[in-house]
Design goal:
By secondary structure, the chain is an alpha/beta fold. It has five helices and five strands, in the order βαβαβαβαβα. The chain has a five-stranded parallel β-sheet. Helix 1 packs parallel to helix 5 (135-153). The radius of gyration is 15 Å and the shape is globular.
């Protein structure tokens, strides 16, 4: 059974988002051991300068880097990453397992994205498209897509 770690900046504030995440974690338990680690979201004043934004990303990045396990396959979620279909995500996860990785770490950045240092550590950068999603909602979408991908590889009826 593969281990999936999700490192996410910020806490889920809305009950409906927490419930959705818990539902997908429950469904995923048939295929994977899922762990979600929340990193403190750093704030800055309204209309921050580019330097202030970089400072926030660097602080969050250092906290993220401290939580990544050695020998984990690291996938930062970022807009410049590769876009894959659900079937391609399923194949990618299978390929990662075949390469001997027993653990995958997916990273969801904060409001300003992910630091360059975290992106550079990634084995593969993944994007869910050019749209901007709130990072709290992104957690639900990511869990659903992991569940869909593992359902595909296990020939479940979930994916149509």
């Amino acid at each position: 059974m593969i281990k999936v770690n999700i490192i996410a900046v910020g806490r889920l504030k809305e009950k409906y988002l927490r419930e959705a995440c818990e539902e997908y974690k429950k469904r995923l338990s048939a295929y994977a051991k899922v762990n979600i680690t929340e990193i403190e979201e750093y704030r800055c004043k309204d209309n921050p300068s580019p330097a202030e934004i970089e400072q926030v990303k660097e602080k969050e990045g250092k906290a993220i880097l401290a939580k990544i396990q050695k020998n984990s396959y690291v996938i930062p979620m970022c807009i410049e990453g590769t876009q894959l279909s659900s079937e391609e995500i399923s194949k990618k996860l299978g390929d990662i397992a075949l390469k001997g990785y027993g653990e995958i770490t997916l990273i969801i950045g904060g409001s300003f994205g992910i630091s360059d240092e975290v992106k550079a550590l990634g084995n593969f950068k993944l994007s869910f498209g050019k749209i901007t999603l709130p990072h709290q909602l992104m957690r639900v979408v990511l869990l659903e897509q992991i569940y869909r991908a593992l359902s595909i590889s296990n020939n479940s009826k979930y994916h149509k």
